[in-house]
Each structure stands twice: as structure tokens, then as C-alpha cells.
Design brief:
This protein is an all-alpha fold. It contains four helices and no strands. Helix 1 packs antiparallel against helix 2 and helix 3 runs antiparallel to helix 4. It is flat and about 35 Å long.
Length: 70
């Protein structure tokens, strides 16, 4: 199964959203990558995992900054 299929079947699987976001990022599908990473960040927050949520938030900020430059 692909990461996209897994996120559809298990929408609360934070690892699947994170991996899907990273895969999309590698393929320059930024809008979809950002959406997946936002979901992962929100799931980490819901799971009371602020450190991982912060890591994803930093990644999202870097993407945003690259978009402004690009």
C-alpha cells in the first residue's frame, strides 16, 4: 500500500502522514506535502507529543521560507 492509501485507511496514523509529506516534498508536490505535514503536526499535538509537533512545525516553516525565496 502507498502512504496515501494508508492515510486514507488510518487517518490518525501520524507516521503515515509524516512519511507521505516527506515523499511528496521530494517530488516537489508542495501543497500536498504541506497538508500532510500539517496533519502530522496536529496529530502529534493531539497525542501530547509537543517535541515531534515542534520538529514538524520547524520543517513547515523551512518549506514556507523556501517558497518565498523560490
Amino acid at each position: 500500500a502507498t502512504w496515501k492509501e494508508l492515510t486514507s485507511r488510518a487517518p490518525k496514523n501520524v507516521d503515515a502522514h509524516l512519511r507521505l509529506g516527506m515523499a511528496l516534498l521530494k517530488h516537489n508536490q508542495l501543497e500536498d506535502a504541506i497538508a500532510s505535514l500539517e496533519t502530522a503536526k496536529n496529530l502529534f499535538q493531539a497525542q501530547r507529543n509537543p517535541q515531534k509537533a515542534q520538529t514538524v512545525a520547524q520543517l513547515l516553516q523551512e518549506i514556507s521560507q523556501q517558497q518565498e525565496v523560490g
